[in-house]
């Protein structure tokens, strides 16, 4: 059977959903659910997240240049989904989802205590790519 041609698009699915926490103090803390994330380098360990500029967390990460990638579980599926469809402009996501912000070891952004793996990241570069900005970050600590 011959192949058909589609218009160019991002066809690399599925991607993992993660909860990214950001903010430098409790008044600023927020969570955004991201699926555009991944590894980009082993040494030094580096990863990326891509966020639309109009998202609330985008401005927080632009200001503080750090974030935490919190891996999710089946038990956190509802919270992960909810944090992805509600804005931190209108909701305190930690409070409403009964998630616990805990102190990270290196960055000021909080870890989500209920997450089994917390990846602390410091932004090294930001690429404006169109619909999303890519935050390229060095992994500075991992908590399990």
CATH homologous superfamily?
Answer: Electron Transport, Fmn-binding Protein, Chain A
* Beta-strand content bin: 35-45%
Task: Extract low-pLDDT stretches.
Answer: none
Number of strands: 9
Number of domains: 1
Structural class: alpha+beta
User: Would you give the CATH topology?
Assistant: Pnp Oxidase, Chain A
What's the order of the H and E elements?
EEEEHEHHEEEE
Strand neighbour order, sheet with most strands: 2-1-5-8-9-4-3
Shape: globular
Mean pLDDT, to the nearest integer, reads 96
Describe the main β-sheet briefly.
Answer: 7 strands, antiparallel
Q: Tell me which CATH architecture applies here.
A: Roll
Q: What is the percent of helical residues?
A: 10-25%
Q: Count of helical segments?
A: 3
- N- and C-termini, Cα separation: 48 Å
Q: How would you summarize this macromolecular structure in one to three sentences?
A:
The protein has 144 residues and is α+β, with helices and mostly antiparallel strands.
Lay out the secondary structure:
Elements: E1 18-22, E2 30-34, E3 37-41, E4 46-51, H1 56-64, E5 66-71, H2 77-85, H3 93-96, E6 101-102, E7 111-112, E8 118-128, E9 133-143
Antiparallel strand pairs: 1-2, 1-5, 3-4, 4-9, 5-8, 6-7, 8-9
């Amino acid at each position: 059977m011959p192949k058909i041609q589609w218009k160019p698009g991002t066809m690399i699915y599925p991607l993992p959903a993660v909860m990214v926490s950001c903010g430098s103090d409790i008044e600023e803390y927020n969570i955004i659910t991201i699926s555009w994330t991944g590894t980009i380098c082993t040494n030094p360990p580096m990863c990326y997240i891509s966020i639309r500029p109009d998202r609330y967390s985008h401005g927080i990460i632009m200001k503080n240049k750090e974030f935490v990638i919190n891996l999710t579980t089946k038990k956190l599926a509802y919270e992960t989904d909810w944090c992805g469809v509600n804005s931190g402009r209108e909701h305190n996501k930690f409070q409403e989802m009964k998630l616990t912000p805990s102190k990270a070891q290196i960055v000021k952004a909080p870890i989500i205590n209920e997450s089994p793996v917390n990846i602390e990241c410091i932004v090294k570069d930001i690429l404006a790519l169109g619909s999303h900005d890519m935050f390229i970050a060095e992994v500075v600590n991992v908590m399990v």
